[in-house]
Write a structure and sequence with these properties.
By secondary structure, the chain is α/β, with parallel strands linked by helices. It has helices at residues 26-41, 222-228, 246-256, 278-288, 304-307, 310-313, 349-366, 380-383, 386-389, 392-404, 420-428, 448-457, and strands spanning 6-12, 15-21, 47-48, 54-55, 60-62, 67-70, 77-85, 90-97, 103-107, 138-145, 148-153, 156-162, 182-189, 192-201, 234-238, 259-262, 265-267, 274-275, 294-300, 318-321, 325-327, 333-335, 371-372, 408-411, 433-435. It is built from 12 helices and 25 strands. Helix 7 packs parallel to helix 10 (392-404). Bound molecules: zinc ion. The site of zinc ion (ZN) has 4 residues, from loops.
């Protein structure tokens, strides 16, 4: 019934402590039992067509454009069932609706291409990777308990949204609010089938025991504004490190309304969990595949193209690398984010900067990555003069190679790089962008600098890169920098 594996987050000062519930709570056990009773008696879930024809609950096939409206109206409820979408089909579940009001849950599978995917609470919690596939039955569950809306797909919670006291809604979505009303099954495009639908009504005082993070203050939240514009909110560069567990990332992602792309580091020299060979890559992928994250991988150090097969790394949705590890002017491996590894012996900082640019071009030319992460990072003691070192000529060299190989440019809120000037120059060329934090622990932001770039550089949803645009698997791997 989807209750078995849920996570609880308990706010404690600024940190969150999470507890994984492995046993069904008494309350949920009762609900599950009730749901089974209702299912066996088939007393709920009867429907009518738009022209008033009654339809008994059972296996329901909806042709493109067809709708079924529940005969009963609901406030608090748990609805569960199975859905089947034909290839490329798109459907909706509307609830608390009179046909116009209320919320919409989207059913839509397929590649990560920027369209909203199965489980999305439309324009409030849009999701970009589906945990279900077309042409096979998948489980869904939708629960409304007080102010909380929870959606799970194939047993995994993908939405846990609590409507705050003062929700932010644009004029277009002004009626996307909780109240009570009918449930509508709607096939928007292609055929969608439903079966085993059970709707259990719940009392007025019911609440989602797993919803323990404070509701977002939407009057002062930039993320809900992006959601309402259907601007894809994805942080592609999240690492499970420094105490950030996958359970915490899951809870934070649902609470904040930010899709996370979670990536391990593959290679050597980085911080936190590192994958060492193809076998570890496949094992890790199996572990993260059922989680509601985009699945990325970061090539780390300068030998990852030699260590891993392109086929193994190809199973991830996307791959990124950075130029924070370079071979310096004396061919030493240098992680330029560590002051003790940055040696200016025999060269000026201007010459050292030329070396960084030259290495960056080499990396992006020879290592088939989708995204240039931590882009334009330079050592701390040079960063104070970032604009002086990043001359137009140097910027153009890096943008040339991004353009040549269709590599996306990460906008990184942790380092606030690249500069807004460089972002504007990249946009001018039509380059694509991703947002990516590169967190070191669980205490990181909500894409603040990316939101600044959207506003000040005019970044639109059309400027965002998606894994469906990836060309890395067809690019040759060129082994270079070999000793
Ligand atoms: Zn990283």
């Amino acid at each position: 019934m989807g209750f078995l594996l849920q996570y609880v987050a308990i706010p404690m000062q600024k940190q969150y402590i999470y507890r994984r519930i492995t046993a069904i709570t008494m309350k949920n056990a009762i609900l599950s039992l009730l749901s089974l009773l209702v299912l066996s008696c088939a007393v709920s879930g009867d429907w009518k067509t738009d022209d008033g024809k009654a339809v008994k609950n059972g296996e329901l096939a909806l042709a493109s454009g067809a709708r079924l409206t529940s005969i009963k109206e609901y406030r608090n409820f748990i609805m569960s069932g199975k859905a089947f979408t034909a290839k490329g089909a798109e459907a909706s579940l509307l609830f608390h609706t009179d046909g116009e009001s209320g919320y919409e849950v989207i059913l839509h599978n397929g590649a990560i291409d920027g369209t909203r995917k199965t489980g999305s609470l439309a324009a409030v919690r849009n999701l970009y990777r589906s945990l279900a596939e077309d042409s096979c039955w998948f489980d869904f569950q939708l629960a409304v308990r007080g102010k909380n809306i929870a959606v799970s797909i194939n047993g995994t919670d993908v939405v846990c949204y609590t409507e705050p006291d003062a929700p932010y809604r644009t004029a277009e979505y002004a009626k996307r609010l909780l109240s009570s009303g009918a449930i509508i099954l709607q096939a928007k495009e292609g055929e969608t089938k439903f079966k085993d639908i059970a709707i259990v009504e719940l009392g007025d005082d019911v609440r989602n025991e797993n919803d323990t993070l404070p509701a977002v203050d939407e009057q002062n939240d930039a993320i809900i504004r992006l959601q309402q514009r259907n601007f894809p909110v994805i942080d592609y560069h999240v690492h499970l490190k420094g105490g950030l567990t996958k359970e915490m990332a899951h809870a934070m992602s649902m609470n904040y309304g930010i899709n996370y792309g979670v990536a391990p580091n593959a290679g050597e020299g980085g911080v936190g969990r590192m994958l060492a060979d193809d076998k570890e890559v496949y094992e890790y992928y199996e572990e993260v595949k059922p989680l509601p994250f985009l699945c990325g991988v970061q090539g780390e150090g300068r030998r990852w193209t030699k260590t891993f097969s392109q086929e193994a790394l190809g199973i991830f949705d996307y791959l990124f690398t950075d130029a924070m590890t370079i071979r310096d002017h004396k061919n030493r491996n240098s992680r330029i984010y560590r002051a003790e590894e940055v040696h200016y012996d025999g060269v000026t900082k201007e010459q050292y900067m030329d070396r960084i640019v030259e290495q960056t071009v080499k990396i992006l030319t020879n290592e088939p990555a989708d995204i240039f992460a931590n882009p334009t990072y330079i050592p701390d003691d040079m960063n104070v003069d970032y604009d002086k070192y990043w001359t137009d000529e140097r910027i153009e060299k890096v943008l040339d190679v991004l353009e040549q190989h269709s590599i996306a440019l990460e906008i990184n809120p942790r380092y606030r790089i690249p500069s807004l000037k460089i972002i504007s120059m990249a946009k001018e060329r039509g380059l694509k962008f991703t947002f990516g934090t590169n967190n070191v622990d669980a205490n990181f932001g909500r894409l603040e600098y990316c939101i600044e770039a959207i506003e000040r550089c005019g970044i639109t949803a059309e400027d965002i890169w998606f894994p469906s645009m990836s060309v890395r698997r067809t690019r040759p791997v060129i082994i270079y920098n070999v000793d």
